[in-house]
Amino acid sequence: MRVLEDHEWLYVAIPIAMAITGYLAHSLTVAALFRPVRFVGVGPLGWQGLLPAMAARIAPRLFDSLIDRVGTIRDVYQAMDPDRIAEHLVLSVRPRTAEFVEDVMLDADPQLWDELSPDVKADVAERIQKSLPTVIPAVTADIDRKLDDLVDVDHLVRVRLVDDAAMLNRLFATAGRREFGFLRKAGLPIGLIAGILTLAEFTVWPDWIELPLVGALTFAIGDAVAVTILLGIPIAAFGSTVRYGLLGADQERVSRVGTRVVTREILTVRSLVTDILNGPRGDLLRALVSEHVAPMIDDAIEYARPTFREARTDEQIADLASRLADHTIDVALEPLSDPAFSRERQVVLEDVFLNRMLDLSAEEFVGLIRPALHRAEWLLVLVGAATGVLTGLVLAFWVF
């Protein structure tokens, strides 16, 4: 106490120092939610951002909630408009038919391709070209009918949000920019109040052991209050703003930003098809496509079949047809990456998702996001308590 009496400026300096400490602690806590994306350390000693570390639990839970309350994979595919996808593929692939036929043939059997006359080569390409406007819409329609069997949602979530934890970070950091900013800034008044209360308590009971205890209790309670302000108190007696917090009040902005990230970077036409092809059920999609493409290829080489049979066995001819079918799938993926087409489909899908997000009640909206942040709530409170203890110990050392 003598130190405080002899240095009255400490009455001002201590609350200010604790306020700055609170802000720095909150800033560090928010950063610790996201960084580092990969574990940094030696053995069990180290740290990985809480969201990336919990991605395997957070992402499936968030995705399941989106499917239950916003839209299923089928809704996503329907919003992308299978007919429009088919139209785009036909317009993009048909002009390149001769090119990709020649690429496959030169790769698979260059000697045979060289032996074919220009008329035969042109006929093969022309027959495939004429069949595409019928075959491609049939494929997209068949995908629509069998989508539930083709899509492995767990694989989709793992590829897009678990294996690529940086994407999960970007989704939360971008959509929750205002909310995480509030948590950072809340450290300043919490620290200031903690400093004032610590000084008041110490003035009455000048015992050094009470400084870290009061600091821990004050910071922990302050952080719990900050989380409550952000996420609300789910009690019916309170008004909507109190029950669902700042997050519920910010539903429109969070929904708008979040759906933009989802539709531009996670659920795109190309990513959906690519993830299906590369996933555990990729063979099912290739088999489905082959059912439609194989007859087209057979018809295309019919005119050249005598020449084929003179030089190759039926098995070799069948292998060529299979390679053409597989290459047709690969060629079809390229137009799906076209920026103009992707933007066109993204705008439509974003509009569908945004309207459904805005149709959610505040309770449903907060319930969609809060489970993913459950551990972050406790992390903030625990870091606050630790900050109070450390600050109290420093003050005790300083004063005594």
Structural class: mainly alpha
Number of domains: 1
Quaternary assembly: single chain
Tell me the series of helices and strands, N- to C-terminal.
HHEEHHHHHHHHHHHHHHHHHHHHH
Shape descriptor: elongated
Strand content: under 5%
Instruction: Specify Rg, calculated over alpha carbons.
Output: 31 Å
The average pLDDT score comes to 80
Low-confidence stretches: none
Cα distance spanning the termini: 8 Å
Helical residue percent band = over 70%
Number of strands: 2
SS field, number of helical segments: 23
Strand order of the largest sheet: 1-2
What composes the largest sheet?
Answer: 2 strands, antiparallel
Structure characteristics:
400 residues, 23 helices, mainly alpha, single chain
Description of the structure:
This protein has 400 residues and is mostly helical. The protein has one domain (2-36, 46-399). 82% of the residues lie in helices and 2% in strands. It contains 23 helices and two strands. It has helices spanning 2-6, 10-34, 50-53, 55-69, 73-80, 82-93, 97-108, 110-115, 118-145, 147-150, 153-162, 165-175, 177-204, 210-231, 240-249, 251-266, 269-278, 282-300, 305-311, 314-333, 339-359, 362-369, 374-399; strands spanning 40-42, 45-47. Strands 1-2 form a two-stranded antiparallel ribbon. Strand 1 (40-42) and strand 2 form a beta hairpin. Helix 2 runs antiparallel to helix 23 (374-399), helix 4 (55-69) packs across helix 11 (153-162) and helix 15 (240-249) packs across helix 22 (362-369). It is elongated. The model has no long low-confidence stretch (mean pLDDT 80).
